[in-house]
Inverse folding.
């Protein structure tokens, strides 16, 4: 079920009441409520998906216990490889089988051999990329000795299937999430209110910002041949807002929902579009995934301890794999590749660890230098998003050729000059202002408690609620559900 | 914890109160653009009909008021009829619209209402989450539905469960205004004269709409006209009619019957004669059982293929569910003839 659906609006209060009232601070009952509700939540999409998720979870549960019992290093490694093989094998089959077959056939076509590809009508289980990585991190941490495996199945299943983050992250680490299912959760009023506030902000980002930007971004991308450089650039910018509003909105709803149950999830987005360089952007965008790749792939390849040539190689691998994780398409690989190209100069001149603090910290406005850096970084990010959103590499190339031509200075398409677009522009401005002033928190309106008057705070909340209700139209699925 | 729940409920209550205040300013028909356009059309003209037809698209596309007027009114009469039918307007939305119609200025000249009789059914999947499925769903209609569905002896448990679920989620959507708030605020007085038909009498044959708009959706529907399917529906209708004498009063939705009786009483209070009718290809055992239990108002049955085989002939059909313009002519004539014979018997 979608977070912005009536089904979830009915589901959440019921689970909340069951967790806090009926479970009555008993750990086993609380965890059981979490597990049952998570299975219902996930099974709502398609009950068949449950078997796959449970298989993945149970494989890693028992393999991890096996790893700890084994004293022989080689056998431990074999068990780990088995876990990797099974989990990545399932992910590879469901997500990448048709891609590999089609690419294989296309490659042979170049040499003049034609044959019918044996592609399958495979449904991609929702959230498979997320929960697979989550259970893999569990097994790897156990193998590395940095985590004790869970001996109890219910808390472990609660960790794997926890419904707020199951289908689109954040990809949680067992060291952070699993211990929270080992002790009874006590209701905390301040945290629960903060959770509701974060859900509200997440819904605003998704329903008001992302879905409205999507309407125009889709028009432009679906008929990109008809538009000039300026329109195409606006389309990419709208897509940038769409994907940020959509994905970070989902994360906010997930984190906020978890807070309602006394569970703390990791921050997944840290105002990435205010980054001053591409390295900072990648420290602030989809943090749970980038840190996963850093900890389990980059460091395994040697990380930054190797020579520069290998660091460059490792960086490329990470970005390409990250692109490939997003989807079975050359577009995503190209997206990863171009981000690697943007990143590498910073790595080579050793400036990839600058800008670690929040931009213009403590100031109301950025400096001119910061502002220019933000715009330049945003432009580079847009160039990457072109590949991410385009239907094909050909379309992406068309975007590039128009944007880097004189048509960039032509008047945008007429439909972008209609009155409805000015409403969208107003909303985007309002959104950016709130994001900017909230950038030192975990989410934009986290610090709203500085407004002392409860009446004023509630008026702000009501205003956001009415905006969400007004703009909540046909449900657009969260983009990252397809991954 | 209690403070959290209390404040949450308080916040929600404030939101709902603001919604109720907003709702009080918008007309009852705001979510049904066809019906709404027709009512606005009448209000703009300042002339109100003596006869109205209320129902689904099987009224909207199949009953021609201009033809009916020639048959019903004398040449020097200034009276006229009006087609208030609208697509996907089923029971109990029709009840809701009619009850509000009776309270409005537009009904002041009304003498006769032809009302399409239908059983209570669930919301079709393609209509879920659309404002026309929820705008009319207030507390009273919701509780009517739950009672009707629960007490219907002809529905299976899984049918009941599906209908409870869809109506409950639609009701919550309606209360919270989810997905429809924008239209409530911005489009509550949407008006399109095209929806009132070429003669602005509420009748819009599908052929006319196709000729005007060249819509791909309508072309597809016309192409999908399936005579095998219609033959099956015809045979089914014949069987249902043949077995109608076997129906008992226990096999009826009494909640719906009570509501129908209320409509009859409300109409009588306003001096209006209400005449129920059953459209072709809509008949079911449940509908016939319902029709048998209607007392105090006549029920015209146009669904019997033995009596009206022409309503299943290819030359009179536009698509699987509706008659074309030629079919609408014979349909309107049939409705009038049946009504006239009832009046003669009186």
């Amino acid at each position: 079920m979608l977070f912005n659906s009536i089904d979830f609006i009915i589901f959440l209060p019921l689970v909340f009441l069951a967790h806090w009232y009926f479970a009555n601070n008993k750990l086993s009952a609380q965890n059981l409520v979490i597990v049952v509700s998570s299975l219902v939540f996930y099974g709502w999409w398609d009950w068949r998906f449950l078997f796959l998720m449970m298989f993945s979870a149970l494989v890693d549960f028992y393999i991890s216990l096996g790893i700890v019992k084994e004293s022989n290093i080689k056998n431990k490694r074999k068990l780990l490889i088995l876990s990797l093989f099974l989990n990545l094998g399932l992910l590879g089959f469901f997500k990448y089988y048709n891609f590999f077959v089609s690419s294989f056939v296309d490659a042979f076509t170049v040499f003049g051999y034609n044959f019918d590809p044996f592609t399958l009508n495979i449904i991609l289980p929702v959230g498979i990329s997320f929960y697979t990585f989550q259970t893999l991190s569990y097994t790897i941490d156990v193998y590395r000795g940095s985590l004790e495996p869970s001996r109890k199945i219910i808390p472990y299943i609660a960790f794997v299937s926890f419904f707020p983050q199951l289908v689109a992250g954040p990809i949680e680490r067992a060291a952070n999430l699993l211990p929270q299912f080992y002790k009874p959760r006590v209701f905390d009023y301040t945290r629960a209110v903060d959770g509701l506030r974060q859900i509200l902000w997440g819904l605003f980002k998704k329903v008001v910002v992302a879905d409205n930007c999507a309407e125009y971004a889709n028009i432009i991308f679906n008929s990109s041949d008809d538009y000039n450089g300026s329109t195409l650039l606006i389309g990419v910018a709208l897509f940038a807002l769409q994907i940020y509003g959509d994905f970070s909105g989902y994360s906010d709803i997930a984190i906020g929902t978890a807070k309602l149950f006394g569970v703390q999830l990791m921050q997944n987005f840290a105002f990435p579009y205010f980054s001053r360089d591409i390295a900072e952007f990648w420290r602030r965008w989809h943090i749970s995934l980038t840190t996963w790749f850093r900890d389990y792939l980059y460091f395994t390849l040697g990380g930054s301890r190797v020579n520069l040539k290998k660091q460059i190689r490792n960086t490329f691998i990470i970005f390409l794999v990250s692109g490939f994780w997003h989807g079975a398409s050359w577009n995503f690989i190209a997206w990863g590749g171009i981000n690697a190209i943007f990143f590498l100069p910073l790595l080579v001149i050793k400036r990839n660890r600058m800008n670690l603090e929040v931009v213009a910290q403590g100031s109301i406005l950025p400096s001119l230098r910061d502002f220019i850096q933000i715009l330049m970084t945003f432009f580079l990010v847009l160039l990457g998003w072109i590949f991410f959103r385009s239907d094909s590499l050909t379309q992406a190339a068309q975007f590039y050729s128009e944007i880097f031509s004189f048509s960039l200075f032509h008047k945008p398409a007429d439909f972008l000059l209609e009155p409805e677009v000015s409403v969208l522009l107003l909303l985007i401005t309002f959104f950016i202002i709130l994001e900017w002033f909230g950038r030192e928190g975990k989410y934009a309106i986290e610090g709203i408690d500085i407004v002392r008057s409860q009446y004023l705070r509630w008026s702000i909340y009501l205003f956001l609620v009415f905006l969400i209700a007004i703009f909540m139209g046909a449900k657009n699925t969260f983009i990252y559900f397809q991954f | 914890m209690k403070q959290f729940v209390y404040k949450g409920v308080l916040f929600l209550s404030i939101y709902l109160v603001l919604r109720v205040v907003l709702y009080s300013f918008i007309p009852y028909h705001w979510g049904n653009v066809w019906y709404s356009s027709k009512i606005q059309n009448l209000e703009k003209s300042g002339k109100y009909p003596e006869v109205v037809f209320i129902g689904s698209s099987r009224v909207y596309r199949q009953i021609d008021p201009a033809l009916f007027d020639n048959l019903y009114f004398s040449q020097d009469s200034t009276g006229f009829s009006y087609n208030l039918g609208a697509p996907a307007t089923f029971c109990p939305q029709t009840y809701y619209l009619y009850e509000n119609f009776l309270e409005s200025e537009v009904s002041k000249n009304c003498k006769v209402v032809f009302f399409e009789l239908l059983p209570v059914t669930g919301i079709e999947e393609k209509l879920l989450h659309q404002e026309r499925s929820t705008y009319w769903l207030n507390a009273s209609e919701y509780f009517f539905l739950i009672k009707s569905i629960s007490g219907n002896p002809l529905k299976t448990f899984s049918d009941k469960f599906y209908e409870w679920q869809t109506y409950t989620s639609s009701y919550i959507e309606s209360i919270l205004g989810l997905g429809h708030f924008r239209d409530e605020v911005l489009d509550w007085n949407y008006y399109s004269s095209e929806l009132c038909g070429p003669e602005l009498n509420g009748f819009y044959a599908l052929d006319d709409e196709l000729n005007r708009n060249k819509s791909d959706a309508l072309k597809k529907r016309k192409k999908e006209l399936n005579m095998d399917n219609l033959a099956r529906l015809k045979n089914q209708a014949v069987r249902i009619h043949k077995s109608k004498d076997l129906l008992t009063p226990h096999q009826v939705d009494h909640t719906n019957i009570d509501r129908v009786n209320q409509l009859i009483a409300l109409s009588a209070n306003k001096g209006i004669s209400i005449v129920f009718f059953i459209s072709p290809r809509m008949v079911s055992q449940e509908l016939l059982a319902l029709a048998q239990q209607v007392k105090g108002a006549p029920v015209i049955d146009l669904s019997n293929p033995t009596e009206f085989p022409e309503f299943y002939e290819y030359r009179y059909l536009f698509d699987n569910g509706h008659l074309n313009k030629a079919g609408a002519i014979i349909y309107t004539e049939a409705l009038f003839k049946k009504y006239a014979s009832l009046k003669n018997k009186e």
Notes: The mean pLDDT of chain A is 90. The interface with chain B takes residues 6-7, 9-10, 20, 187, 189, 192-193, 196, 458, 461-462, 465-466, 469-475 of chain A (CB under 8 Å). The first helix of chain A runs from residue 6 to 22. Residues 137 and 296 of chain A are 8 Å apart (CA to CA).
